[in-house]
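It is worth pausing here to work through a concrete case rather than discussing structure prediction in the abstract. The textbook approach is simple: state the sequence, then state the predicted structure, then interpret. We follow exactly that order.
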Amino acid sequence: MKAFRQVLAVAMSVLLVLLVIEGCLRLLGFAPTPTLNRFDPRLGWTKESNASIRRRTAEFDVAISTNSRGLREPESTRYETTDGRQRVLMVGDSFTLGYTVAEEATIPRLLERRLRAEGRDIEVINAGTEGWSTDQEVLWLETEGRRYQPDIVVLQMYENDIFWNGQDHYLHYPKPRLGQEMPLAKLGGELSDPGRGSWLVRSSALVGLIDRTLNPPAMPTLAGMRGLPAEWQIRLTEASPGVVETAAALSAFAMLGAELGFRPVVLVVPDKAQIDAKARDAMAQLIDDPRYDPNRPFRTMVLFGQVLGVPVVDPLKALVAASDDGRLALYFERDWHTNALGNRVIAQSVADVLAQPRLLGAPPKKVAPDLSWAENNPLGQGPPVWPFALGVFWLLLGTAFWRRFPGQGVLASYGGVGALLGSVVAVLAGLNWLSGVLPATLGWLLPRVVALALAGAIVWTLRRRLPVMVEVFFTFVRRGQWYLLPALAGLLSIGGLLVVAAASPWLAPFIYTLF
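Step two, the predicted structure:
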């Protein structure tokens, strides 16, 4: 029986080590990214039906749900239209889907609210899917999208569409390519299911990291450009893969509009480097090529739409004006997708184009364009909550410290707690500021380097106590007291961190930030 308990203790020890590694990897940003995508034999992938995920990063925390038809729409959205009501269908990639913002802050929802404020009886449907290219969007319109009987289809494009329109794989999934001579003919027949991978790979940071190391995704890179993504070639020259296929996909879109009776519109979303000077300089430094032009992909896509005679939404000037020379952020700092205010500017630009006579026509009711983006937030977001929460926490903690150690005095108690909390905030603010001013690659690496350096400093500070802590732990293992190991590991970890915090004033703010 004792041997069995010892085996359980060893197994529990291994499990605890794996859980610690898993937790550390998640803290370092290696947590698995949840996705709604599933394999589709015609499109490569599409969204799961009746699914919900939560995307959480340092910049946003968003819940995304789909209805029974796989759209980020309520279940009440049907194929059939209400008599007299006009319908706008928006197809695109992650900018249309809006995985970085709440549903009410996506471009389709903001556009719908704007159009209804103008007195129109209209609905806007969000058919965006993360990672899609123009060819997949056209194929979806040909099969599923037509069932929604849209009056207008807004096809959203982004610069990386150009490269991926010419590829037959996108990382994990295969994808279709459209033939150049017969734009709606898909080359290669039915696609093969690559499988989703094991549950552990999709759910564990540790197993996922091992899998990605052994089987890295096949991201095409530029030859001789230090491993930069091949999709950036369009930033250097018009002679880029996928240009011909992109023109064919847009031609197919226009032809499909004539066949199904909807009016086609193309929306081209600018890259952050076209709006934000800091992002433009960082990208120029990273690419380090005199041919780099952040506007080249955008110009190419706008030109394709204009040549086909399709109305094109060009929100570049509106975004530049709204950014107020970089004083107002319209894109996320690290993710580079548009935030709620950026989406609002784009939705306004789409509404302006839809007011053309050949589309929706002039609105029944005049609504003045709202250009005061900073002062009049459409989502009703007030001032940040964290300063008030921090103030309340300071009062509670300061009071508790003063009551526990009355000899310290009121000023010393509240002042000491305030200094500690101020150090924690300064550490977090400093890391956030450094991540923003450094180039994109270094900004991504900084928090991981700091975390590894902190771990190393903690181990070094505890170096004389670690043998004792390890001996205590394995004493419980040898005794077979496996059921006490989780509590013991927690006590030893917390105790060790508190010892480090007491021994080093430099490490104390980091330790208390962890708590």
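Step three, interpretation. Confidence is low (pLDDT under 50) at residues 373-382. The radius of gyration is 27 Å.
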